[in-house]
Design a protein that fits this description.
The protein is built from five helices and six strands, in the order αααββαβββαβ. With 182 residues, it is α+β, with helices and mostly antiparallel strands. The protein has two domains: 71 residues, Arc Repressor Mutant, subunit A, CATH 1.10.10.200; 96 residues, YebC, transcriptional regulation domain (Alpha-Beta Plaits, 2-Layer Sandwich), CATH 3.30.70.980. Strands 3-1-2-6 form a four-stranded antiparallel β-sheet, sandwiched between helices. It is globular, with a radius of gyration of 19 Å.
Length: 182
């Protein structure tokens, strides 16, 4: 029975799980770094609610403590890698509005990747303020759709919009996505 090794099967399964976990850790690290940088270097979770939420989410993923501490240090400016929070706005198929938060060290690379995804699914990347007026920001930093701004596209455009959202979530720089789909 050549080619039927239990270790080979375990190795491939572990590799798949490690890729998914690595992507989740990267997103959590970006969120922590941005939370510290946005608060002007405040590293105390009791004083920085956004940092506290980011650390809680990282712990839910079982992220090691040393990686959390490195992300906090990056947010303070130590380590040379500086990330910034950038918002992208666009319209998808059927007039669906997308508000995309990203944490990036290279705005051009991220903008190009997001624009490419919008183009592939029949959407357009819009300028600042073109979509954000359709959403209201809550106290915890999350956005909700304003009551009058919901859209109901046909089934084909709804499927395309969901695929567009899935493709955006795969990008490592993308943190959160808001849309006005019901």
């Amino acid at each position: 029975m050549s080619g039927h090794s239990k270790w080979s099967k375990v190795k491939h399964q572990k590799a798949t799980v490690d890729v998914v976990r690595g992507q989740a850790f990267t997103k959590a690290s970006h969120a922590i770094t941005i939370a510290v940088a946005a608060a002007g270097g405040v590293t105390d979770p009791a004083m920085n609610s956004r940092l506290r939420l980011a650390i809680e989410k990282a712990r839910e993923l079982n992220m090691p403590k040393d990686r959390i501490e490195r992300a906090i240090a990056k947010g303070k400016g130590e380590g040379g890698d500086t990330r910034e929070s950038v918002w992208y706005e666009g319209y998808g198929p059927g007039g669906v509005a997308f508000l995309v938060e990203s944490a990036t060290d290279n705005r051009l690379r991220t903008a190009s990747a997001i624009k490419h995804i919008f183009d592939r699914f029949g959407g357009t990347l819009a300028g600042p303020g073109a979509v954000s007026f359709l959403f209201t920001k809550k106290a915890d930093g999350e956005f909700i759709v304003r009551p009058y701004s919901g859209v109901t596209p046909d089934e084909e455009n709804r499927q395309k919009a969901h695929k567009l959202e899935e493709e955006l979530r795969v990008l490592p720089d993308v943190q959160r996505i808001y849309t006005n789909l019901p």
